[in-house]
Specification:
By secondary structure, the protein is an alpha/beta fold. The protein contains ten helices and nine strands. A six-stranded parallel sheet has the order 1-4-3-2-5-6, sandwiched between helices. The longest helix is centred in the last third of the chain and has 20 residues.
Amino acid sequence: MAGVPNLIRRLSGPKVRSFQVFNHIPALRKVRRNALLAGESVGFVPTMGALHQGHLALIRQAVQENNQVYVSIYVNPTQFGVNEDFGSYPQTLQADLEQLRSLAAEYWRNESVGQITAVFTPTTRDMYPGLKPTSEVDGPGSFVTITPLSSILEGASRPVFFRGVATVCMKLFNIIQPDRVYFGQKDIQQTYVIQRMVNDFHLNTQVRVVATVREKDGLAMSSRNVYLGKRRRKVATVLIRALRAVRTEFVNGDIRREVLLSAAQRVVDEELDRQTALPPQWRSLFEVDYFSLADPMRLTELDEVNPAHGAILSGAIKMLPVEESQEDEDLGTGDGRMPVRLIDNLRLKMPSFLRKSTSNDEISSQI
């Protein structure tokens, strides 16, 4: 990544074996101030818990670039719509802390990298000290809104989502004052919203975007994957297969929107035909929300892709509830009764030998 320091300043004191867990803001701010006075950089990874390898990849990157790394675990109510899955979102705090302790132990004796020093697990009362948080579009409260980025793509289907994300991140950034913050490319639109917020409000932090971590079959890792179960999990790869079909068309030379996105549509239509032909106890149905072919600078839709600049190709599908279960079937968390929304994206770019010039591929530098 451009601008990443090659060397981390040596810690002012010896490394510790593990991290401290903070539930309240004042104690965390005191530790952060001590790091500032010691001249030690702080990287921050905000999460909602239910940690997986994607989260750990963010933390690993942060450890490489900062003296200290803070991780937050907080399921933020304001980014869930009224009828979304806030009440059932997986909360696995003790398992998350064990994963973080194991990860911290990997770096304990390595003096060339930083360390995980703080895990912040605030309460909603601490994060929203005024009015009770609301998930209603026109509900009262103090919110950060980033338009028009927050109203397209994911925002069109989830109108309060990015308002909630921007608000909680602004709060967390104000509390922690990190030198760098880390987000995954899987949530590509979120990274654009956060970068715009950082720029527009003159926040003194750098946004780092880390590549999506995938399962062996290509499915992007997500905390919501636990809802899928074996049957829906197998069909869920239709999204990345559709995106990769578009990428193949692009690399083969086509830059027209209708041709590129029709490749994705063919993949999902073929999978839907296969599933519809199966009896209810065997099939997994899904709905496509959108496919987007967007400008990498502004995230606006493109009619044609400029090969020199490329494009952000993204999509979202909803895996529908299981219609009829089989005996002893693995249906995942929730027993297959709830729909599961999945998102993914790819950066379309020509191989270097086909491009006249090579552009900077770091997403965060183009927002």
